[in-house]
Design a protein that fits this description.
With about 120 residues, the protein is an all-alpha fold. The protein contains 2 helices and no strands. It is rod-shaped and about 160 Å long.
Length: about 120
């Protein structure tokens, strides 16, 4: 009976060792698969990050260009506003001077002898 018990214990130990070996092999496979998946995920995320950084650079450049254009437009607006203000401010004065000039020309047409003398 001791021999049969020893054989049974040996068989059980071999089964336990085989089960443990199988569990270890499964664990190694799962770990390797997980490492590979994480590696691919890192690569994908790195690519996404690079694309996002490129888009950020383009957006910043576009923003700078838009701000420059806005500044130029604001300067043009200020120049036009100043020019218009000058025209409006001096309109009455210029209109009066033109009216006086037209009146002087009319008076000159009405009195040709005086115009010839002068």
């Amino acid at each position: 009976q001791i021999i049969s018990d020893a054989k049974a214990m040996e068989a059980e130990a071999i089964r336990s060792e085989e089960d443990a070996q199988k569990a270890y092999e499964d664990f190694v496979k799962e770990t390797n698969a997980s490492i590979e998946a994480k590696g691919k995920d890192i690569v994908n995320k790195s690519e996404e990050k690079a694309k996002a950084e490129g888009a950020l650079v383009e957006a910043k450049e576009a923003k700078e260009a838009a701000l420059l254009e806005l500044e130029q437009l604001a300067n043009s607006k200020a120049e036009l506003h100043q020019s218009c203000d000058f025209i409006l401010k001096n309109f009455d004065l210029r209109q009066t001077a033109r009216d006086e000039e037209v009146e002087a020309l009319r008076q000159g047409e009405g009195n040709p002898s005086r115009a010839e003398v002068e």
